[in-house]
Amino acid sequence: MVELVFLKDLVLVFGVSTLVVFLFHRLRQPTIVGFLVSGVLVGPFGLSLIADVHQVELLAEIGVVLLLFTIGLEFSVSKLNQMRHLVLGGGSLQVLGTILLVGGGAWLFGLPLSQAVFLGFLLALSSTAIVLKILMDRGEIDSPQGRFTVGILLFQDLCVVPMMLLTPLLSGKEAAGPVAILLVLGKVALTVTLILILSRLLVPRFLYQVVKMRSPEIFIISIILICLGTAWATSQIGLSLALGAFLAGMVIAESEYSHQTLANILPLRDSFIGLFFVSVGMLMDVRILLNHPLAVAGTLSAILIGKTVVVVGSVLALGYPLRVAALVGFALAQVGEFSFVLSRVGWEWELITPEFNQYFLSASIISLLLTPFLIQISPKLAAGISRLQWLERWFPGRSFEELKPERVHLRDHVIIVGFGPTGQNLTRVMKATEIPYCILELNGETVRRMRARGEPIYYGDVASHEILKHLGIQQARSLVVAISDPASIRRAAGLARELNPHLYIIVRTRYEAEIDELYRLGADEVIAEEFETSIELFARVLRRYHLPRTIIGEHVEKVRQEKYEMLRQLQTPPLAHADVARLFSQVDMETYLAQETGPTTGKTIGELHIRHRTGASVVAVIQNGRIWANPGPDHRVAAGQVLVLVGSRQQVESALVLLSTGERNS
């Protein structure tokens, strides 16, 4: 009956999780938070619905393995190279800074050095799953703060494995001298090298043979075999399951099967990782929160404030504006899901006490619950913090001061904000038409590179009053905002309208919800990507139904003039295409090849009297890739030419007979 008890526990876990996650989804909160709350409810410190927590934890371990496997799948050398200054620069500053700040503070308060360092490990990590989900939902993944946040999260994920390997050494139960550390690092290096070599030699050939079988089931089973098999192999030589899963993902990431693998493994991963978060929630003792609210609140405050300060300092040290640094800091203020994995390892090696673990779990879960709200209000908080310019002087770091605008001497010019694909295309047009322009970009490396090529590009934040004035906003004729940062777009529209009431402001936004607000702030034109895509789609569909282009153009212009109101209300007026469609259903098209000795060869189209005798028309003549559209009556038909005939079926048939025999079909 043990199996039935375990099955009952799983049914309870998934049943409660489904209800709670559904509720959180309706409240527009991340599903991970719902899983954590579900764990609190069903766990031994909640309603005590689960009889055997250990069995659930075993399945949760598979979720951790699959999570690390998918991170390995998404990690590649090329991706790291593109974001190297954000990943290696910002990520290393954040992780090391957090370990030093937290570890140093804990050591000063009397905690042993090894435990203090481990506490720094725990708080150095943030929630990749929750933060990326929120950034994608808000359309900020490609914004400056979005790119920086992703870079730091990627570095944190890469640090999980070495942290887990160093934990036994910190416990003191394993030799922690230089020789022992070198042995561990050597074992890791040898294992990684061996697995990568064998995998590069065997995995692509193995997967190629599997794919040849054209069986999705065998492909999925083979992927799971590689993932779990590599994880098991690393565990057998004393390393972690996590390291093996991560390496397996990296190996497949370099193959042509990575995208299909990720698509197949994600549903399985999400199911098991849900169990992992439920199991974390089960560990939270609600009584600790009720009996020691001040201690939990103090721990939570230390986590949120400490992490925010370190992240802000790391971003400022790389020369980025204070507003962007604050947004990244608020996004990464919580404790990450891998911290829970690491805390279990630390508990096993007695680096943290059960009492402290409860304080940590309670504060960490609350920090995850607060993350959506913190990110939601972060633009207003960052705007207020950005006025404290004196903070930037504390972090000289790598500066882009020489790239900032110094009184641009232009008049009636266009200010282009953002040098992505849209900004680059607009710049080419400005050059071709000799319209004066300048560019504002927040990626310092891009500014340096393009400045060397002679572009009038400057470094700065469009949300800055001073930056806009230095770009000559008061003398400019137009402002084009082509960035993926809703908060900055709104700020730019309001500031620009305030500084120049006569400025023509065009902004780009991804979502319908931004349109009214941007018009209210002063934008003259709002290009909504959702609706522009819809316009292009319906225009192309209507062209396939042969509606006149003038009619299509009128509808497109009407939609834009009404600020997309027709599409937003789904009240597009009916288009009278029935007659046109009926007409084209009766039209036929055929081709005729003129032969060397045929009756048409050498004669002009006028001499053949095709239209007069049959009713069909010659709309084109083709030969050797050359096309004569609408040939005149004096066009002489030569051997090898193809005549394109249009008319009703009867007319076209008569024309083909005429051209083939010289006689009209009776």
What does this structure look like?
The chain is α/β, with parallel strands linked by helices and 666 residues long. The protein has 4 domains: 384 residues, Up-down Bundle (Na+/H+ antiporter like fold); 123 residues, NAD(P)-binding Rossmann-like Domain (Rossmann fold), CATH 3.40.50.720; 50 residues, no CATH class; 76 residues, Alpha-Beta Plaits (2-Layer Sandwich), CATH 3.30.70. It is 65% helix and 7% strand. It is built from 29 helices and 10 strands. The protein has a 6-stranded parallel sheet with strand order 3-2-1-4-5-6, with helices on both faces.
Runs in which pLDDT lies below 50 for 5 or more consecutive residues are 570-577
Biggest sheet: strand arrangement: 3-2-1-4-5-6
Biggest beta-sheet profile: 6 strands, parallel
Q: What is the oligomeric state here?
A: single chain
Task: Count the beta strands.
Answer: 10
For the record, the CATH class of the largest domain is Mainly Alpha
* CATH architecture title of the largest domain: Up-down Bundle
Q: Structural class of the helices, strands and pairings?
A: alpha/beta
Describe how the helices and strands are arranged.
Layout: H1 2-26, H2 31-42, H3 53-74, H4 77-82, H5 84-108, H6 113-124, H7 128-138, H8 144-171, H9 178-212, H10 216-236, H11 241-253, H12 258-283, H13 286-291, H14 293-317, H15 322-331, H16 337-348, H17 354-385, E1 414-417, H18 421-433, E2 437-441, H19 444-452, E3 457-459, H20 465-470, E4 478-481, H21 486-499, E5 504-509, H22 515-521, E6 525-528, H23 529-544, H24 549-561, H25 565-569, H26 578-585, E7 588-593, H27 605-608, H28 610-614, E8 617-623, E9 626-629, E10 642-647, H29 649-661
Parallel strand pairs: 1-2, 1-4, 2-3, 4-5, 5-6
Antiparallel strand pairs: 7-10, 8-9, 8-10
Helix pairs in contact: 1-2, 2-12, 3-11, 3-12, 5-6, 5-8, 5-14, 6-8, 6-16, 8-15, 8-16, 9-10, 9-11, 10-11, 14-15, 14-17, 15-17, 23-24
